[in-house]
Amino acid sequence: MELKEKISIEEIEGIKYRIKLYEPFDDEYKAAFTHYLHNSKNGISKYYKSGAIKQIQKAYQYKFPDDELSSKMAEEYIQYLLLDYKEEIPFPAPPEPKFYFIDLFAGIGGFRLALQNLGGKCIYTSEWDDQAKLTYKANFGEIPFGDITKENIKNYIPDNFDILCAGFPCQAFSIAGKRGGFEDTRGTLFFDVAEIIKRKKPKAIFLENVKGLINHDKGKTIYTILNVLRDDLEYYVPEPKIVNAKDFGVPQNRERIYIAGFRKDLNITDFTYPSPINTQKTFADIKEEKVPTTKYYLSTQYLQTLKNHKLRHASKGNGFGFEIIHDDQIANAIVVGGMGKERNLVIDSRITDYTPETKIKGEVNREGIRRMTPREWARLQGYPDSFIIPVADASAYKQFGNSVAVPAIQAMAKQILNKLEIYGTERK
Q1: Are 35 and 106 in contact (CB under 8 A)?
Q2: Phi and psi dihedrals of 267, rounded to 5?
Q3: How far is CA 426 from CA 140, 191, 418, 421, 422, in A?
Q4: 419, 271 in Cβ contact below 8 A?
Q5: Residue 332: what are its φ and ψ, rounded to 5°?
Q6: Greatest CA span in the chain, whole angstroms?
Q7: What is the DSSP letter of 69?
Q8: 22: pLDDT strictly greater than 80
Q9: Contact 202, 161 (CB under 8 A)
Q10: Residue 24 has what pLDDT?
Q11: Which domains are seen in the chain, by residue range?
Q12: Which of 337, 417, 402, 389 has the alpha carbon at shortest distance from 110?
């Protein structure tokens, strides 16, 4: 195999197409390459340089399998790319950011959207789900890094960012007979968040989780989290608060726990959570303007099954079953799996064509009962209609069900920024 120390224009053009596709290369290097491109003007690209070079080398070797591109030439090629790099994306970072943040367990970018709206620039993001990565890339132009538990993925995280954001999954900790400190969180995803905080020491942290975290493992989990943040990592952490998305302009009853933290050397000793806004919305505010296709309408047989199921539970004194959200109501929390979609059925009588689009048992019901569409779920979470949904419905429901409510996150982030006194200023 020949080691190439010179590269022709023909070879440059030959691999440009492969680079644009970001395929079929290692996710780590794809992420590093896109992060490099998006941070080429702020000095942060140095953290992604080695991975970006490997991406170029792999792209070249894919196109020219008999040749190997030297690191020097790969670096020169990156500079060539930057000369005419213009990627049109729906949600670019502000050209003159007021602060930097990182986005862990990023999902489809709810934290990023909220903090960008406040003038922030995301300089690192991670997410393990491949379908969520597709949505993230389509909207923000970056491919998230993968499994944050791996040391090689942590090693890409830059220094000197202002806020660490993480909507980390909840796991029980083994703290029997211990004080519930940093070492007791090993083997959990919170440990990896704590490890990053310990290494990078951001000014502030913003964590989000399901409200059940308060009582998780009989209160041991939240006890350990707060103990680690306050005592081991030395952050001022006010008592966490459960915040409901319906209080911040979206018609969804979604309660989540928010945890804020500030590095102790900043001498911040108080914090006020965001107050609910006066605007109350209902499903009518986010309803599809045009009648959705019949694939969202329930079949007569499935609707009858749901009714029978609800009656059986009602006879036992249970309230389990499907639920219809009327236009003047707010939705239940949208969740993944179980009866997530069925607890948020709606009546939409605008349908005139009852021809099924897919194979169903029975007919399309004549009561106008349908599932909400993925776009309606996006609106329930506060995503603008310009947010691209590039994946199939099954993945879209999962992604929005797992996401954060953007307006509530934004309200909380604004309070954090005000406390840091960097909201409305330019990052130095």
Answers
A1: no
A2: 60, 35
A3: 22, 32, 13, 11, 7
A4: yes
A5: -70, 165
A6: 78
A7: E
A8: no
A9: yes
A10: 47
A11: 2-83 (no CATH), 99-277+404-420 (3.40.50.150), 289-372 (no CATH)
A12: 402
> What does each C-alpha distance from 233 to 98, 125, 181, 191, 237 come to in angstroms?
25, 22, 10, 12, 11
- List the catalytic residues: 170
- 68/400 Cα distance (integer angstroms): 42
The Cα–Cα gap between 209 and 256 comes to 6
Residue 116: how many CB atoms within 10 A of its CB?
Answer: 20
What confidence tens digit (pLDDT) does each residue in 67-92 have? Answer: 777 888 778 777 767 755 666 889 99
DSSP letters for 109-124: THHHHHHHHTTEEEEE
| Residue length of the chain | 428
219-223 contacts, C-beta under 8 A, 24 or more apart? 220/172, 220/173, 220/175, 220/180, 221/170, 221/171, 221/172, 221/173, 223/175, 223/180
DSSP, collapsed to helix, strand or coil, labels residue 267 as coil
**How far from chain centre, in Å, is Cα 312?**
38
The DSSP element (H or E) to which 399 belongs, if any, is helix 393-402
Give the residue-averaged pLDDT of 213-233. Answer: 90
Joined together, the tokens standing for residue 224 give 């350990």
| Distances 162 to 97, 100, 189, 409, 420 between C-alpha atoms, Å | 12, 5, 21, 16, 9
Residue range 301-329, pLDDT digits in tens: 999 999 998 888 777 767 667 999 999 99
CB 388 within 8 A of CB 139: yes
- Report the pLDDT value the prediction gives residue 361, as an integer from 0 to 100: 86
At a CB cut-off of 8 Å and minimum separation 6, what does 100 contact?
A: 44, 120, 121, 122, 123, 158, 160, 161, 162, 163, 427
Question: How does residue 415 score in pLDDT terms, banded at 50, 70 and 90?
Answer: very high
Each residue of 335-355: pLDDT tens digit?
887 677 999 999 999 999 999
Q: Which DSSP category does 170 fall into?
A: P
Q: Which two tokens stand for residue 2?
A: 């020949």
In degrees and rounded to multiples of 5, residue 167 shows phi and psi of -105, 70
In this prediction the pTM is 0.91
- Residue 197 CA to residue 412 CA, distance in Å, equals 20
Burial 158-174 (b: 16+ CB within 10 A, else e): beebbbbbbbbebeebe
